[in-house]
Amino acid sequence: MRHEGAAIGALGLFTVLLGAALPLIDFFIVNVALPAMDKDLSAGAATLELVVAGYGVAYAVLLVLGGRLGDTAGRRKLFLIGMAGFGLTSLACGLAPTAWTLVGARVAQGATSALMLPQVLATIQATTAGPRRARAMSLYGATAGLSMVAGQILGGVLVAADIAGSGWRSVFLVNVPVVVVGLVLAVRSVPETRSERAASIDVPGTLLLALSLISLLLPLTEGRAAGWPLWTWISLGVFPFAAFAFFRTEQRIDRRGGTPLVPPSLLRLPSLNRGLALIVPFSIGFSGFMFVIAVVLQQGLRMGPVEAGLALVPMALAFFVASLAGPRLIGRYGSKVVTVGGLIQGVGIAVLVATVHYGWPDLGIAALAPGVAVAGFGQGLQLPVLFRIVLSDVPADRAGVGSGVMVTTQQSSLALGVATLGSLFLSLAPSSGTRDALVVTLLVQLAAVVVTVLLSLRLPRKLGVTPGRPG
Fold first, then answer.
1. Are 455 and 281 in contact (CB under 8 A)?
2. 1 domain-assigned
3. Which of 92, 133, 364, 441 lies at 20 to 30 Å from 430 by C-alpha?
4. Measured between alpha carbons, how far is 50 from 293 in angstroms, rounded to an integer?
5. Residue at 465 is within a domain
């Protein structure tokens, strides 16, 4: 590994973590702003779904490619390009005059996020080692989890504040000054790293991966609001064939001695494939819950945006506390922490089911706090450890593509969570009522938590840190 500069310092680590927070915050920040967007732009349900799905799909589709470009062209360079693009597309979102302009800007914003985010983990992998890497990975996990909760809290505050009459637009415009600061810090503090072995872009693999993800995610996220037209079923039918073609293409390129977009040898690492298998149900449950709770708090319980955001503060605080305790617990108990975290999260979801079933509709922040706090604490014990496990055995020269594969899995699963659990809730609510629809959705999430607990039993018990010096 060649890298121009010293191992990353505290300011550089803060800067790349800021870059990691922005895309995740923006995936969730729109949840509480959707009603205001609908009122202002007369968007309609199907277009609003595209505001969410367009970002998520573009983001997921290009993540692995973004990681590969960083490995080849330089991770700091791609981080700067991605962050600058994120700022410009955020400005375009905030100034969008029509709903369809907003959809286009959100797709572009997702694409720039995919250039920026893989460089964060790859830079950490390439510029840290030993205990410093373990701490940095724990901080990344804490940042990722907190960003997903903080997005909805911040969105509620900004929409309610209506700064200078900006309304929902402030959830995008707030990114612009943050990006300017991030760019200044990145130029000064983030070292350049890249792979010693420059690899050409795997065009067939890139196109087939894009086709696989689009054919799965787009119909699932847009189908319900659009009334499940014929194209959604055709698209879903294409998915298994596209995924199989992608897998065989990558195998063929690997056998010929080429550089596939996702090297099959990488997927054979037990730490990576077992960790990814667990990230899928975790992320589906997490994002589905966050989407549904935003709808329930504002439309079902008639909370304002600020109150709806405050209802999630106990979850964010508990997640943060668990993230801080995680590194010490991991050193002593290894991946058993993930199993315990899953059990605790399950208890929190079960408490929420009981609270909603028996307390509806007289539910306020105080009534919801125990369930969301316990669930958040369990999630805080899981997510940082999972990220460490997935990347623990990835070679340094493949840090970018390894990060891209992990974040693609996470992002695709987040989008699937909104599509599946969100559609389940919105389909049940008109006939069964908001309370019963929420209870059913929470029970499905509880089933996903049970799957994560069972899968956690397959993780390596002890977490080693990949040896070697930075770079």
1. yes
2. no
3. 364
4. 19
5. no
